[in-house]
Amino acid sequence: MPLSYPRPHRPNPVRRVAAAFTAALLTAGVLAGCSGDDGPQRTVDAFLAGWRSGDLQAVGLIDPTGAKLPSADVSREIKELSGELAATPPTLTSRGEPKITADIATAPIRVEWKLPGETRWAYDREVRLAQGDDDQWQVIWEPRVMHEQLTKGDRMALRRDAGTRAGVLDAAGQPLVTPRPVVRVGVQPNGVADVKKLVKDLDAAFKAIRPALVPAVDLADLPARIAEAEPGAFVEVVSLREEAYLQIKSRIYDLPGTKFSSDKIDLAPTREFARALLGTVDPAQADDIAAHPDRYVAGDLVGHGGLQGRYDERLRGGTGLTVVVERPAEGGKLEPTGTDLFRREAQPGQALKTTLDVAVQNAADGALRAEPRRASLVAVRISDSTVLAAANGPGPAGENLAFTAQVPPGSTFKMVSTLGLLDRGAVTLDGPVACPKTFTVDGRSFKNSDNFELGSVPFRTDFAKSCNTAFASLAPKLGGDGLAAAGRALGLEGQWDLGIDAFTGKVSANGSPAEQAAASFGQGTTLVSPLAMAGATAAVARGRFEQPKLLTDPAPAKPAPAGEQLKPESVAALRAMMREVVTSGTGSTLKDVPGEVYGKTGTAEYDDNPAHTHAWFVGWRGDVAFAVFVEKGGASTASAVPIAERFLRALPTT
User: Is there a single domain that holds both residue 515 and residue 587?
Assistant: First the structure.
């Protein structure tokens, strides 16, 4: 109900007449507020501005009993009541003209808070005002002005409730990342007899785990952490997958001071499983919080790298948010009162469906497991161009070399230049093309691996034996842009949309005669990624380019259009030659692998030292095309081809 406040008695005929006139008007209803300078609206506007700025000196303030209040006290109380919301004062707006009853006015206002995560919390309140003897309007202050459920001493606080993080799914719709058992390895300081020896023993045990932990467990700060911890504390060292822990349990279980606890953490099927492509989910780091203070707080789980990082917002869902009322308890500690002022329910994340095949990915990871150098393997299903596996060997855990490497393709690119030559009618399977020991173009001498020569042989033999000099001599028949055109027919240099970063290649074009000669066998300025070469190989096997696909939900918005049908006679001849690479050429160690394997080896120089080379193998069997890359792998027959063999032997046959 409106309140009236006693005023000192001051006989005033004018005022008595005015009061009588006002009373007469009130018999007909409530007065609308005056919008002029003497009306309550001016005071309302000043109050709202002062509330937001924290300076209420321009406003007269009284409590519900009519006692005057210092503006600084009210400003301080507003800040205290705001609690955790104080740093972001609300937007305050009038919602209509004040209504006046006698010497009391009520003014509707809208209070709108901006909460974390772009959440808006808006509600309507009323500001009550009393007209003093000097005819000035004063705001009747009480905590209810801020919110109807606030009382003196209350504090508003935010409570966050993380949504359930959704999974990354395989091609069958099953979660790739699910809760899996781990063992947390820790140390209890008061049980450690010899810190230096303990660190040495733990380090040796962790290094014995196979496959090796990447990154390795860093124990450099463990002595300091032990020294700083409480005597009976659990100082965590590392969380190990259960299978890794069991490998070294006998070595670390009885070490003085070691303690262990079992838990479950969301993990991929194996430690290596598409690790760079999937990314990781970890507690929020300082730079995460600094970059997105409205999104993350300490303790939140955040996707880093790969698909988990790229689609973190989709996977993590909407964080629930509650504005609660707290009150200081004994000792000054704030405790919840049980009153919630606002609540936004947490929303579960949306799953990400990929085309990955668990069995194929395991085969790819297993094939790289023994390779000490940085390496990658990409597998693509030929029939629908879906990515079945993307494996990366040793190296930074978040580096997806399989998709983003930009490296020369070496002799695997003879697949591309051969397609161009066949399309132009420049070569035939059995037409003779000389393979000398060296071939010179514009003063630059080209040679073959180990300086071999074949003489004049059918072109299919030049291809199977990977004769560089033969291709250098054929380069002019491709013309300035012929190699690039053949590459584009196989999808290279295309605008692919996979939903994650990928390099589709850059093919040499219109270079000098020497550059064109080098480019014909994958040197020069041509650069590719393993994914790009797997896609090109699948195009040869299929007879038409289709962009590799990785995500089906959400499906990428702008995938590259399918290419035109390749000339049947050209791809038939090229396939025959790629089969001969395996049956009688540089990939002959694969000839006893079950099924018909097609392929092309490649050794690519990456600097001015001919001894420094990357190793490649591209090929297919059945419905699976693949590319193997080994950084600084030397001869492909010694590194890339054995990886291909391990992959094919582990690959499920259909």
Answer: yes
